[in-house]
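Incident review: delayed structure delivery

Summary: a single-chain prediction request sat in the queue longer than the usual turnaround. Root cause was a stuck worker, restarted by the on-call engineer. No data loss occurred. The affected request and its eventual output are reproduced below so the record is complete for anyone auditing the incident later.

Affected input:
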Amino acid sequence: MTEKAVVILSGGMDSTTLLYDIVDSGAEVYAVSFDYGQKHIRELFCAKKTCKILNVPHRIINLKILNDIAPSALTRKDVDVPEGDYKDDNMKQTVVPNRNMVMLSLATVFAISIKATKLYYGAHSGDHTIYPDCRPEFVEVMKTAIELADWNKVELDVPYLFIHKGEIVHRGIKLNVDFKNTWTCYKGKEKACGMCGACRERLEAFYYAGMKDPIEYEEFK
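Output delivered after worker restart:
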């Protein structure tokens, strides 16, 4: 019997590679994305295009209430996205408190409603320095909560949690992921800035993989 699975798809390189991965496994796949008022709304256009290419049913859930109750540099026009590495303290301005728990909860509702047995989530523990809801401890607790949430058991699977982002790029290359159709930069401009924590991490991953990032960047130092 074909496994029915839901993939949380942001439109970034990790979750897009994960979607290709699960489609490649032969599962019956559905994708769900979230519009929480992020400046980098372009990621959702990428997610939509990827799902069309892969012929995957795609839902975008309105979660803009997060912008109303949780000020963040990712959502507020009056708060600039900081530049620097994720380890830098100022990058904490990009935290949207408890965002992943909210998204996982709603994705679980969707999974239960379509009788899916697996929920895939592209979290990466390397981000946990500033994002507490990317910690392995958080993921383990959510696995238990989701399993107990309904009589229709849903298993949370986070396959990229402990691998280097460069390995994710390697995986994507093997799966023929179109990385040009992924978006990472937090600033929401026409081109990626290359200076925010998300851009720096992405560039490092492609450097590690020995591959040039195909998206366009502004000139940066």
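Verification: The CA atoms of residues 4 and 114 lie 9 Å apart.
Action items: add queue-age alerting; document worker restart procedure.
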